Amino acid sequence: MISVVILTLNEEGNLPRCLASLSQCDDIVVLDSGSTDRTADIAREHGARVFTNRFENFAQQRNFAHEKIPFRHPWLLHLDADEQMTPELWGECCEIAQKDLGPPGGTASATRRPPPDSPAIYDGYYVAPRMIFRGRWIPHCTDYPSYQARLVHAARFRFIQVGHGQREAPGLRIGTLRASYLHDLSAAPEPHWLAKHRRYAAGEVATHLAQRRSAPPPRLRDLLSRDRLTRRRTLQRFAFHLPFRPQLRFVYQYILRRGFLDGLPGLRYCRLLMHYERFIVEALREAKAKR
C-alpha cells in the first residue's frame, strides 16, 4: 500500500471528489495551509489525518510533508484537491510499493535503497495527469503526457521550487509510470483560475530573473533533446525572449499541438492560456521597471 498527501487551502468544493477516489487508501493525509472553510472537517469526515503548515511555495510544502509527517508507508503519492486517483494508477503505485525492499509497514525514516536488480530502483516516479476541462479530456492543448514527479519515496525524495511549481531535486533517480491521474482544470470558476494564474505568473518571472543571474543561458540544441522534460523547460526559458508571446502560445497550443481536436473546451482553454501569457508579460515588464 501507499500513503497519499493532499495539499489544500479552502478546498471544500473540490476535496470530496478527491477523497472519494481514494477509497482503497488506508493512509490519507491532508496538509492544509490555513483554510477558513470546511476543508479540514470534510477531510476528517472521510477518515483523513489533517496537518497544518504555513504555505511558502509548493516545494517547501511538499518537503515539509516528507520531513515532519509520520506516514504509514514509505511510498507517498502527492495529489492536489482538484485531482483524482484512477484505478489504473492505484494499481501501478501499489505494484511499485510491493516490489520495494524497504522495511514493511515502514515510515518516512526508511532509507535503504533496493539493489540494482530490483524493479524498485528509483527514488520517485513521473506521472502524467489527464487534464479535464468542462467535462472533457483535452490532451492536445495540454501537451499530454506532461509528466510531474508525484509518486515518491518520502525519505529519499526532495523537491525544489521552479516558477510557481516544483520539480525533483538534482541527482535523484526518476522512473515513469504508465497510468495517469485526473486533474479538473475547470473545478473552480474562471475568475478564480485567472487570479491564481496571475500569481503563478509572478512566480515564473521571479524564477526567470534568478536563472538569468545564476544559470547558464538555454541552449538551442536542448530544444531537440530526446528528453521531453528538457525540451519543455528549454522552450519555457526561450519564450521569455519572444515577442507576441500570448498570440504565439495560442498558435502553438491550438494549431501546432492540434488543440482544435479538443473541441470547444480546447478552444476555451487555449484562450485562457493566452491570458496567462499576458500576465507573464505584464509581470516581467513590472519587474524590469523596478530594477
Automatic annotation (TrEMBL):
<protein>
    <recommendedName>
        <fullName>Glycosyltransferase 2-like domain-containing protein</fullName>
    </recommendedName>
</protein>
<dbReference type="InterPro" id="IPR001173">
    <property type="entry name" value="Glyco_trans_2-like"/>
</dbReference>
<dbReference type="Pfam" id="PF00535">
    <property type="entry name" value="Glycos_transf_2"/>
</dbReference>
<comment type="similarity">
    <text>Belongs to the glycosyltransferase 2 family. WaaE/KdtX subfamily.</text>
</comment>
<dbReference type="InterPro" id="IPR029044">
    <property type="entry name" value="Nucleotide-diphossugar_trans"/>
</dbReference>
<feature type="domain" description="Glycosyltransferase 2-like">
    <location>
        <begin position="3"/>
        <end position="99"/>
    </location>
</feature>
